[in-house]
Design brief:
2,3-Dihydroxybiphenyl 1,2-Dioxygenase, domain 1, 3 helices, alpha+beta, 4-stranded mixed β-sheet
């Protein structure tokens, strides 16, 4: 490995198992680690296409409870890239995600904003080619 890369990011959730179930059903994520640590667990998920891992962090205390669904300050702050927008939008909807808009065709690809069960705003993006820039 040469240089630095973003390896993971943390998402505050009310509890581990419902979040694991959602991300498995909604996006096909798999658990890469689930390690007991006393009262907490180290839980990481990874999408079928790889990329940065998602670390599930169960909220502890009032401040973290208040941050559930608000980590992005109301903005889209999480971006999922797909090779089949319609397939993954249907999967997300079936799992309980709420799309805020119809898919838009932008210069970089097809994109739509959706919310997970805890209120976090995400972009689902099918890029035209190469990398994708969301509407963050």
């Amino acid at each position: 490995m040469s240089g630095a890369r973003l390896a993971a990011l943390s998402l505050i959730v009310p509890d581990y198992d419902p979040a694991i179930a959602f991300f498995r059903a909604a996006l096909g994520f798999e658990v890469t680690e689930d390690i007991p640590q006393g009262a907490k667990r180290w839980v990481t998920l990874e999408g079928p296409g790889g990329g940065a891992r998602l670390v599930l962090a169960r909220a502890e205390g009032a401040a973290q409870q208040a941050a559930i669904g608000a980590q992005g300050g109301g903005r889209v702050w999480l971006f999922v890239q797909t090779d089949d927008f319609a397939r993954d939008a249907a999967r997300l909807t079936a799992a309980g995600a709420i799309f805020e808009e119809a898919p838009r065709h932008e210069t970089y690809g097809i994109v739509a904003v959706w919310r997970d069960p805890w209120g976090n705003r995400w972009d689902l993006i099918q890029p035209v080619s190469g990398g994708a820039e969301g509407n963050g």
